[in-house]
Amino acid sequence: MEQVNLEKDLSAEKLPRTREGTLIENFEFEEDPENVLEQLSDDELAERVETILKERIQDGNKEAIFQLGQLYFEQENYDKAREQFQSAVDCGGRDYQAKYQLSVMLYDGLGGPQDCKKALEYMLDVANSKSILSKHLIHAAQYNVGRAYFQGYGVRQSDEEAERWWVLASDDGNPNASVKAQTALGFFYSRPDTLDLKKAFFFHSEACGNCSLESQGALGVMYQNGLGCKKNPDAACECLREAANRGNVYAMGNLVAYYYKLKLFTKTADLAARVAMLDDVEQIARETECLPGYVAKGLALGCFFYARCLHLGHGVKINKEQAKTYYSKSYGFDADTCAHLQNVTQHGEI
Question: H or E segment at 8?
Answer without folding.
Answer: helix 6-9
